[in-house]
Amino acid sequence: MEVFRESAETIRFLNEKRKNRQLSVHLVPTMGALHEGHFALIRAAQAKNSVLAASIFVNPTQFNNPDDFANYPRKDAEDLHNLEKLGTDVVFIPKVEEIYPSKPVISVSFGELGAKLEGYFRPGHFHGVALAVSKLFNIIQPNTAFFGQKDFQQFAVISQLVKDFSFPVKLECIPTVREADGLAMSSRNVRLNGEQRTDALILYQSLRHAEAQLKQGQKMATIKEEVKEKFISKNAVLEYIELADWELNTREVYSSPSVLLIAGVIGEVRLIDNIIL
Fold first, then answer.
1. Are 169 and 162 a contacting pair, CB within 8 Å?
2. Does the residue 161 lie in any domain?
3. Quick one: 231 and 110 in the same domain?
4. Is 38 designated active site?
5. Average pLDDT, the chain
6. CA spacing 20 to 30 A to 17: which of 96, 219, 249, 276?
7. Which of 26, 35, 38, 127 is catalytic?
C-alpha cells in the first residue's frame, strides 16, 4: 500500500498506474476514525483491474463548530493498518495546509438543497464539503467514488456537484452499516459514554416508529411531536425528523419512495441517521 501526503506525488503515482494498463481508479473519501461502515465502502470499491484509493482528511471547512472539529476522533496509525489489511492500494492523507494552502475565497451554494436539514443546522457545511470533495476529485481523478447512505443529504449534494461541475465521476451510495442493536455506525459514536450510547438508540427507534405510523396513515406533524417527547425523556435534543422524496422535498404523508431523516444531540455528540421507505 502506498501512502502519500502531498497532492503532486499522488497525482504522479496514479498517472503512472493509468498510463500503460488502462486501470480504473475507485475512491473512498473518509475523515478517518474508520469503522465497519467505511470498510463496507472499501469492499464495495474493490474490483479487478482497478486501483483502490482511499483518502483520510478531516476537513475543517465543513465544521461550523470549532469544538466539533477539534474533538473529531483521529486514528491515523490504526486507520492505515486497517486499510492495508483490506487491500487498499493508495491512501492520500494530506495535512490541512496541503488541501488549503491559502484561505479559499470561492463560495459554493446548493440553493434550497443545501439550506435545509443539515444545511440549516450546520450553516456553511455543504460549502465545505463541496470544496474538499472537488479537490479530492481533481487530485485522485477517480472513475467511481463511494459514499455511505447515512449521509444521505451529503450524497444528494455531491450528486448535484458532479452534475453541475461535469466531474467525470460515477457515484455509488452504499447502505448504512449498523450495530447489532440498530445504531448507525459513526466515527462520533466513540465519544458517547455508556449511558449515552444506550440513549443514542433513540434515533433509529424514532425512525422505525415514524415508519410504522406513516404507513398507518399518520401525518408527520403528529409524529414529530411524539418523537420530540421521546428525546426530551432521554435529555436529548431533537434537531429534526423529516419525511422527504429523493430530492429532499419534505412530505407530510407517506408515499413511496421516501426517505426518513433524523438528527439529534446526545450529550455533546451530534448524530444523524436515515432509512429508506
1. yes
2. yes
3. no
4. yes
5. 96
6. 96
7. 38
